[in-house]
Design goal:
By secondary structure, this protein is an alpha/beta fold. Helices cover 39% and strands 21% of the residues. 52% of the residues are buried. It binds nicotinamide-adenine-dinucleotide.
Amino acid sequence: MIQNQPPTYLNYIGGQWKTSISGETIASRNPAKPQELVGYVQKSSLADLSDAANAAKAAKDAWRKTASPVRGEYLERTANILEERLQEIAETATCEMGKSLSETKGETIRGIALLRYYAGEGMYKTGDVIPTTDGEAFMFTDRVPLGVVGVITPWNFPVSIPIWKMAPALVYGNTVVIKTAQEAAVTGSKVIECFAAAGFPDGVINMVTGSGAVIGQGIIDHPAINAITFTGSNAVGKRVAAGAAARGAKYQLEMGGKNPIIVAADADINLAVEATISGAFRSTGQKCTATSRAIIHRQVYDLFKEKLLEQIKKIKIGYGLDADTWMGPSANKDQFQTVLAYIEKGKEEGAALLCGGRRCEAEKLKYGYFVEPTVFENVKKDMTIFQEEIFGPVLVLVKVDSIEEAILTANDVKYGLSASIFTKDIGTMFYFIKNMEAGLVRINAESAGLELQAPFGGLKESSSYSREQGQGAKEFFTSTRTIYVKP
Ligand code: NAD
């Protein structure tokens, strides 16, 4: 599907596809074969961003006044277009960030379902009737849009994250300026093509590609942008929060995780191993909800470790488009180097390497950003690889003596996104539910994974405590008004 002369994608501003004012572009490369170009996107400047923000501002009143069921119809049309382009867009995502095709297809199907869910949301109630102490008066609540929403997204779910932010933003009556991650901007551009083809009025949707430092920071600072929804790293999230708060813009942050799986003494070990492999290594560990710490009861530690290492040997690493590939490369050179640096840090700090730990050296893989599935044991709580999000195929094992110790260990990090436990005991399940500091608490299921109709987000430094998806999105993308009528 990659052509000899890769295509160039344009910005989408005020209903027009436009080159950046500078005319410069950025190349996007396949992390499995970095010599292969996937396409070029615009290297935009603040002037391009300003055009987009002003176009979104000019469109916001008419869009706010468009009836919400009609706004929902645009999303339904977008879903149909994305469905027609499912295979092509999933292949592009695989070529651009390396995940296996089954995963990028799954993500695109999720995007279609999200569009349909929020299309239906245009028909739901927007408020409540509240009794008043004056028998003649009438009081009710209503929800109003925020205006222009700036959307900043990461590269790891290049189809579904832009959609899970844009679909609710739009159906609740906001206009959008989106900057997708530079490392997945070709895929992002194709997603925006689907929105554009659905016929949204000019200016309702705008996309500007470019660096985080210029365009991302520009979204944080632009006075026409009333709210910012961000998914990405904690370091950048803190900048978004500080910048938005300084100018009174609403913001929402979904950030990193250091997600544990606890394996209790009574766990079904085979299921726990399966969930750990999938949680830790699917998507090459590049999910915010990926399992990165396995905390195992002493009684089952050796059995769990033995079965885990056996299963890891069966992981098929390769090009994401190859049918038998289960795990692809790190998504880009920076991420690849970061993962290898964390592995070195783990060794230096005294953790014991059980498997992996290196770049893949097979002839077909050695030029790509492939890292072996890596497991450490003898990991102490103060080690870097226990505390920090690695975002790669690296798992640490920790042995504990009780469920109380397991949960104290699991909670001993700054993150609180997702956590999972394997146990058959209902008392242990409830102890975990009551004491685990995580926004997503999962029992006998892997740490990664969520359903789109449920609210999603983390505790502690994983989030700004706002929620995405399901009905949670309404809280961020609208504001409640209270209306009092005395006839
Ligand atoms: P990142 O923070 O480097 O980038 C995210 C976005 O911010 C990109 O579009 C980037 O260009 C932009 N950006 C970079 N510098 C900026 C700046 N100074 N100002 C404004 N914007 C800027 O993150 P990433 O490497 O793309 O993604 C990986 C991270 O995302 C991981 O930490 C992962 O846990 C997190 N993530 C969280 C969730 C969640 O829902 N909690 C989901 C997916 C990924």
